[in-house]
Specification:
The protein contains 2 helices and 10 strands. It is mostly beta strands and about 160 residues long.
């Protein structure tokens, strides 16, 4: 058996248990789930799927926030930064914290991701942040890495339609 039935997924989710991954090998079926109270979750998964299933409880929720370094910026219009972050699979930029003074703009990005990991190719995606005033000559610093964020104009060389 390589998966669990839709009915079993519904039963577990009604009890606040999210099935994240299902794998089978010579030792049997392994399920990765999330839910509150690990002991309760293990017991309920065993009741629904059988005691032979190996259960890994990845956490209380199916998703988590993680810091992610910014890989580029562009001021799309005065005071509006387009920041670039690399995400994978179903990851998405959740929130960006901002601090700015006369010389510096610091950004700290967080990405929402599965507690079970992500599949898929990494992609470069935009996120937008409004500044208190235009960037002008200020330096953009990534609060995750402490590094200066490089300027990246992804539109350079792209012609506007006539």
């Amino acid at each position: 058996m390589h998966d669990i039935s839709p009915q079993d997924r519904v039963t577990l989710l009604k009890d606040g248990i999210t099935v994240l991954t299902v794998e089978s090998d010579a030792r049997g079926m392994h399920v990765c789930v999330s839910g509150r109270d690990e002991e309760r979750v293990r017991k309920r998964v065993g009741e629904v799927l059988g005691d032979a299933v190996h259960v890994w409880v990845a956490g209380d929720t199916p998703r988590q926030l993680r810091p992610r370094a910014c890989v580029g910026y562009l001021e799309r219009e005065p005071g509006m930064l387009q920041l670039r972050y690399v995400v994978q699979g179903a990851q998405h930029v959740d929130a960006i914290s901002l601090a700015e003074d006369d010389e510096t703009v610091v950004v700290f990005g967080t990405v929402c991701m599965s507690v079970a990991g992500e599949d898929g190719e990494p992609i470069d995606c935009p996120a937008y942040l409004e500044l208190q005033r235009p960037l002008q000559e200020r330096t953009v610093i990534d609060g995750v890495s402490g590094a200066v964020v490089p300027y990246r104009n992804i539109y350079e060389g792209i012609e506007e339609p006539a």
